[in-house]
Amino acid sequence: MMISGLERERLMILRTIGFKCFVDAPIEEIGPVLKKIKFHSGKKDMWSRSIGAHTLQISPRITMCSAERSFFWVHFFREGASVEKNALDRVLADWYFTMSKHFVTVVNWMQAAVEVDPFSSIYGYTENTPRIWSKVDKQLRFSFYPVRQSYLLDVRNDDIRIAIPHHRYSLWLDDLEHNVQGHKKPDDQISLDLII
Asked: Of 4, 16, 101, 153, which is most buried, counting CB atoms within 10 Å of its CB?
C-alpha cells in the first residue's frame, strides 16, 4: 500500500557487469596466464572463475582477434540472481594486474545491465535521442538505454581506443543508482569519491 504524499522509491537491481578489453598478444598466449589466477578453460577459448555464487567469465571476440592483438568480453554475473558489485573488486584487480604484468592490457568499455522500477528519468543525463540518456564527464561518455527487460549503462572514452579507469566501476554504479532514484541533486559523497 502506498503512503500518501510519498513517492515510491525506485529500485535498481544490478544483473551483470561487463568490460570490453584488448590484450597485445595472440589468444593462445592468454590461457597460461589466466591459469595462474585460478581461471578454468571452457569451450571456444572461454575462461571462467567462481567467486562465491558469482562467475567472472572471459570470452574472446574471435572475429576481431589477430596474431598481434586479442579482444575480449569480461563478464561478471550470478546465474538467475542479482549481482553484488563489491564481490568483483578483488578478482577484477587480480585479473588486470596479472594480465598487465605479461601484456599491454587495455579496458576500453564498461557495460552494466540493470533493472529499474519504476523508471521515468535520470538526474544529470540528457535525453538527446528518444529513450537514450547520456552525459559526458571529462573524456568519458555515459549512455543509459533500454534493452529488452532491462537498461544498459555504457561507459567509454570519446576515443574508444583509449582506456577507461575501469576500477571506478563501483562509483559509477553508485552514482547511477542515486540518479535513477529521482534525486534532484548529486550525492556529495559519491561526487567527492568520483573527483578523487
From this structure: 153
Cα separation, 41 vs 44, in Å, equals: 9
| Sequence-separated (6 or more) residues with CB below 8 Å from residue 99 | 23, 30, 33, 105
Strands (DSSP E) contained in the chain are 11-23, 40-41, 47-51, 54-60, 70-77, 105-117, 126-129, 132-137, 140-147, 150-157
Residue pLDDT, tens place only, 88-113: 999 999 999 999 999 999 999 999 99
Closest CA to 23 of 125, 163, 134, 146: 163
- pLDDT attached to residue 195: 53
φ/ψ of residue 190, rounded to 5: -65, -40
Whole-number Å distance between alpha carbons of 141 and 115: 21
Cell of 80: 538467475
- Planar angle of CA 28, 33, 37, nearest 5 degrees: 140
Q: Is 62 exposed, middle or buried (0-12, 13-18, 19+ CB in 10 A)?
A: exposed
Residue 154 sits at φ, ψ, to 5 deg, of -105, 135
* CA–CA gap between residue 60 and residue 71 (Å, rounded): 6
